[in-house]
Design goal:
5 copies of one chain form a homopentamer. The first copy, chain A, is mainly β and 91 residues long. Chain A has a single domain, classed as Beta Barrel (OB fold (Dihydrolipoamide Acetyltransferase, E2P)), CATH 2.40.50.220. Helices cover 0% and strands 47% of the residues of chain A. A 5-stranded mixed beta barrel of chain A has the order 1-2-3-5-4. In chain A, a hairpin with a 5-residue loop joins strand 2 and strand 3. Chain A is globular and about 45 Å long. The mean pLDDT of chain A is 96. Chains A and B meet through strand 1, strand 2 and strand 3 of A and strand 4, strand 5 and strand 6 of B.
Amino acid sequence: MVLGKVIGTVWSTRKDEKLIGSKFLIVKQLDLQNKLKENFVVAVDSVGAGVGEVVLYATGSSARQTNVTKDKPVDAVIMAIVDKLDISVKE
Amino acid sequence: MVLGKVIGTVWSTRKDEKLIGSKFLIVKQLDLQNKLKENFVVAVDSVGAGVGEVVLYATGSSARQTNVTKDKPVDAVIMAIVDKLDISVKE
Amino acid sequence: MVLGKVIGTVWSTRKDEKLIGSKFLIVKQLDLQNKLKENFVVAVDSVGAGVGEVVLYATGSSARQTNVTKDKPVDAVIMAIVDKLDISVKE
Amino acid sequence: MVLGKVIGTVWSTRKDEKLIGSKFLIVKQLDLQNKLKENFVVAVDSVGAGVGEVVLYATGSSARQTNVTKDKPVDAVIMAIVDKLDISVKE
Amino acid sequence: MVLGKVIGTVWSTRKDEKLIGSKFLIVKQLDLQNKLKENFVVAVDSVGAGVGEVVLYATGSSARQTNVTKDKPVDAVIMAIVDKLDISVKE
């Protein structure tokens, strides 16, 4: 899974019919120093994540293993909201 | 999903028989400042997207979860046309 | 899908038994100015593509959705030969 | 599979219900000189790996082929703890 | 598929039970001039490949389509040993 922060929303009315009701969030990748990277994905939310929250998202076919994404054309899903990171090994 | 803009079409007559009737669009990735990146994919359209439109596309096995791509050798599908982006968190 | 040009062939006699008879082509990625990139893959051909031809290839599980690649350990398949590109949106 | 070292843990209480009880570990990629790279993933542990250990992780749908990750929205799993590397071919 | 050379072995005793008996090989990517790249993967061998041999490996779910990797948490498999490359198109 990838660590990211929700920074916004994508609005779409014309979309695949299976996606009606799905919420598309813009998620920027975070590094381990809590800094935003340039890379971002648009992910469907399955856990009630809001803008500004630090999350994990899963990609590929694994993104279809939640109740809200099953059998849908979705390749990224937010499946956890992060409370904190514990980093024990320094480089 | 990935944010992109449709910039053209790929024409092909000799192709896998399951792909007869599929429309191949050239989609360049967009950044969050609405600037085109160098990266592009060729995606099948499932939502009536036209050249110049901003879209989302899904990749991998998720690209086969629409009615027009089911069981076909397609690894990228346009599954939404974007109305607008709301970006709330600044870097 | 990815745009590429077939530049050669890989010969292999010792291979997974499901791959007997499969033709392995070396495909270099093409950019939209018809210039070869450094990146290449080895793809199975499903459409009679020859060396020098411009093609599309699909990757991942989608590469197993043709008659010649079904259930085989193949992660890239040529599924279309390109006639031409129409690019309408300039950068 | 990818070679990495477990460097920490991600704590999450709000997550997909299938993930209750799953342990999320932060794994940095290792090069062949045993040096940490910048890239990292968050992986579910299936083999009792601890912080500081060198591991292999599998990604994509293959990450769901262990007993602890089956049918879950998980795209990276630690499936082996590394005893040692034997490198015989020099560059 | 990706062109590579087997350069070593990963030894692991604590691993997912489905992987008992699987041989993990370190495979560095090769370019078309037969030079090793920095990138490497750890792949399961399905064709009796040995250290020093030039091989093709398949990734993702396609890596589980051999008899030795079926249903296992394996995302890279060596599925062919390369006899030679024929490159006909120059850059």
